[in-house]
Structures are given as structure tokens and as C-alpha cells.
Amino acid sequence: MGVKELWALLRSEGLVTQVQGGEDHPQIVREVQGKVVAVDLSQWFFQANFQPELLANFPTQEARCLKLSFERAINFLRYECVPVGCLDGDVPPEKRELLQKRCLERSGYVGGGNGNSAFQELGNLVGQLLRALGLPVVPAPGEAEALMAALEVAGLVDACATSDGDALVFGATHIYHTLRLQTMVTKQSEVVRVDMEGIRGRLGLRTGGAEALLALALITGGDYDASGLDSVGKTGALRIIRHLLKGRASDEGIVTRLADALAQAPDTFLESLTKCTGCRHCKHASGLKGHCKHHSGRNPCPTCQLREGPCQCPFHAREEERRLNKVVRLANQNPGFPARAAAAYKGYRSQRSGASIAVSQLPQQRLKWQQRPDVAKAAGLLGVHLEWEPEKVRRKLLPLLLTWDAEQRGHAEAEFEPVRIVKLHGAGYGTEPQKDAWRYLMEWKRLSKGSQQDINHDTEWLTGKGTCTPDARSLRIDVVAHHWPALLAKFNTPAPAKPVRRPKKGLKEAEVRGMASRMQAFLTPARKDAAPADKAGRAPLQGRGLAEP
After folding, report:
1. What is the bridge-based pairing of β-strands 36-40 and 82-87?
2. Of 102, 250, 346, 517, which sits most exposed with the smallest number of CB within 10 A?
3. Where is this region: Disordered (predicted)?
4. CB-CB neighbours of 350 under 10 Å
5. What is d(CA 197, CA 179) in angstroms, rounded to the nearest whole number?
């Protein structure tokens, strides 16, 4: 869940970018290609347990989560987007009860953060599968969202994929609320993104942003204090934060300023400002109990000239102070709020600190797709829980094996080699179909490595005798250009011009004319020989049997 109503607030402020497949699919390709993304695996697990197709075909949650994670990892990698699995660790005491209740409602089991909990066992199982595919998996000391943010801050990943707004509070700067990537049906792909840079712009900041969102969470409520301040909505809370940040380039110290403001007694003068007392004509205070259309003789104003702009009466001029004063009054009426807010603040900071320490102990280099998929290990896990045969697992992994072998040209484990570009693949979407295509359909050669059974199955599948789809045999254009330039040069070389062939109709007419000429040549000498001589013993003239004069 994270910060209450945070995503609705960000959408209302125009800070959420959404791109769907179809004609905009090329934009999705450009968005994710080459990215390393920290993924909140707990959300994959929840989603797996709510997909009707998975529920109908796979009776156990282990099978559902493994299948969803397996297929998503394959799709991500085919877009050159590397998912880094992030696993929850021990749940902080401040939110353990809330999380247990939420897990029970969503999935039917308690995820309390204990070392032997079903939730963590499920995470370990999926982690084994992702590692078998060559992907990094990082366990968190506490919340996965805090770990993801720390990984991004350290430069080990480029973005975080989670719908939990707490990742922003923990310091993440690029969040994918939705990251759905499909290679078979690209129109089903979707990206929903928010960036901290946009949030800073709305708050008038140059740096920071996470502390301001933390202060917002204390008012609206979140995982560490579900109540927050009752009767203060997301929009009102945002106005309070903006007021406290006015004139500042950084949000440093915003939580302290909020606490100091809420600890004060309500201002009685501000509470007395209940309506506008300004002049609509000149915008100055009217001096009356209410507003007026313009000043009069009994209520003079030496500069009562028509003016544009906001009203300058105290009610409007001190509007932001009045809003803050209302929140101060609510805080004074809720004596338990300061202690809850302090505990929530401590919980957020503790998680952020613990995650930063954990990330500092990792190799300080950008994470990547580490190794060629281990088909045997993946088949072992999926065979036990999904009852898939090894051949089926290998067939599903074949696109990744082709991609890895093409990218790691000449490595010792290579089993496949591209030999020819057949055509552009998937050029049906985008405003410029040929330009927006992102893959080539390739012809492949199966090298003589591995078992003979695998060689036979792979060869049959790749030559089209099996069920290998063009999608599975396709390869990203950038991979071909970088690693196989000779194939690209040959593909782009125009074919030699073919000799011009006459239309069939013309050929038939020529044949008819030739046949007539041959027939005439054949018949003419025959008539000459057959014609009788005249009385003088002379042969007849040639042509139509005319006699010589």
C-alpha cells in the first residue's frame, strides 16, 4: 500500500506517465531497453494469486508464482530489461500487524516476516528459479522497497518496479508502478512511471523530495501509521507541505518543521477568518464584515481602481496559514498523533538506513544478466511444482538461449549461431512501421554441443518442423548490429537485378507468329513441286500459282 492515496495524488498533479502497447509500443521499447530494474517480488506473488487463468490451471501458490515469475523474466530479458529480484526480509515491528492482516486478506496466508514464514519460503523458491536464469536476486534486511531505493541511489539499478509508494519515501527516483512487457502480443505491453524530478518540480524544490513525501505520509497515513491525521485528505496534506517548503530549495528538515508547527496551539485570529472581506473591484480589504463589489463613500478607498489578481483581504491572503492552522487544531484534538508520527518517522528512517548499509556491502557495480540460463536447474524446479517435462522447459527458454549466444559471440557454452536475417519482425506497429521495428527474424544454426537429444529437438524446432514461432526466433536489431555486422551488411545489400521477362501474353503472340511463318515456309515448296508444267514444259511461277505472261 505505502502512502495512503499517493498514486491518486500524483495522477491528479499530472506526474504519472502512462504508455500502452499498440502504436506506442516503440516508445515502450525505448523506455525499457538497456535498463536494470529492481523488482518487488512480493507484488508478483500477489498478482499470481489473483490471475483467473493461473488459479484455474495451477492448484498451488508455488506453481502460480513460479510460472508467472518465469514468464515475466523471459519477457523482460527479451526487451533487454534486466529484472533484479528483491525479497522482503524481517518486517519492521511498526507494520507487522498491518502486513499480516493484508497478506491474510489477499492470499490466505500470514506473511509476518518470520524466518520460517510461508511468504519467505515462497520468495526463496522463486529466487532459486531467477538465479537459474542468470538473474541477480538480493534479499532485503527489512522492506524490499527500502532495498530497491538503496540499490537505485547506489547506482546498481536504474529504476524500481513497484506500486508501493514507500519506495519514493525511501529515496527511489524512478518508479514503474506498472511494467508489463509482452513480446508475443506487444499491444498488451504497458508502462506507468513517475519520477522524483517531477515531484520536486511540483514542490518547488531543486534537491530531495523523499523527506517531503515522508512528511506527507505522516499526515495522510501509511504502512507505519495507518490513521495519520483524520479528516486531512491528500490534497490538503500536499498544500501543507508546500506551505512549509515555500522559499526553500531543499526539503531537508521538513519533518521537524511539521512537528514544530503541529505542536503549537491553534491561532485564534486565523480561526476568526471565516469568509472573504475584500473588495471585488480593487482587491483591497473592504473594512466591512463581508466582501463588497466596490468601496463607497462610507467605506472609502483612495486607490479603488479595477485590478486583476487574487483578493488581498486577510481571509485570502493568509489562506495557506489558515489551512495549516486547521491541521494544528486537529493535531491538538488527537493527543496520540505526535507519538504515532514519531514512531512512524523512526520506522521509515530505520528501514532506509538498514537498506543503505546492506547495499554498501555489495560489489559496487551495476547489476546485470550474469550467466546463460541453466536449463537443468530451471527444469528441476518447474518439473517438481508445475510438472513440466525438461523438453518443455528448454523450449520455453530457447529464446533466451538464442539471445545469450548471439550477445556472447564465441563463448564456450554457445549452442546456437545466427546465420541469416530473414526479414524485419514485428513491423506492424508504430507510425513508421519499418523504422519502428525492433527485431529481426533470424535463421539459426544448431552447433554440435550438448546432448544429441537436445540437438535433434532444437534442430527440428528451429527449422520450422516443430512449433517454433517467428517471435521465438527473432533477435533485437541492436544485437545483430553490434555482434553480427556482416549479417546486417548482407541483409542491407540490394539483390542483383533480375533479367526482365516478357509478359506471358506477349510470348504467346510471338509463338503464334513464328508458327505461322514456319507453316508457310513448309507449305510453299510443296505446292511448287506439286503444280503441273504448262504446255511449253515450263514450271509455274512461285506465289499464289500465277502464270508468267
Report:
1. parallel
2. 517
3. 524-549
4. 16
5. 20
38 has which bridge partners? 84, 160
**Helix H or strand E segment including 28:** helix 25-32
Sole residue written with cell 522447459: 393
CA 115-116-117 angle, 5° bins? 100
pTM of the model: 0.83
Q: Which residues contact 246 (CB under 8 A, 6 or more apart)?
A: 204, 320
pLDDT tens string for the chain (549 positions)? 678 899 999 999 999 999 999 889 999 999 999 999 999 999 999 999 999 999 999 999 999 999 999 999 999 999 999 999 999 998 888 777 676 666 666 555 555 545 447 788 899 999 999 999 999 999 999 999 999 999 999 999 999 999 999 999 999 999 999 999 999 999 999 999 999 999 999 999 999 999 999 999 999 998 898 888 887 889 999 999 999 999 999 999 999 999 998 888 887 777 777 777 666 655 556 554 555 454 454 455 555 555 566 777 777 777 788 888 888 888 888 888 899 999 999 999 999 999 999 999 999 999 999 999 999 999 999 999 999 999 999 999 999 999 999 999 989 999 999 999 999 987 554 456 566 789 999 999 999 999 999 999 999 888 866 567 889 999 999 999 999 999 999 999 987 877 776 655 555 666 667 777 777 777 776 555 555 555 555 555 554 444 444
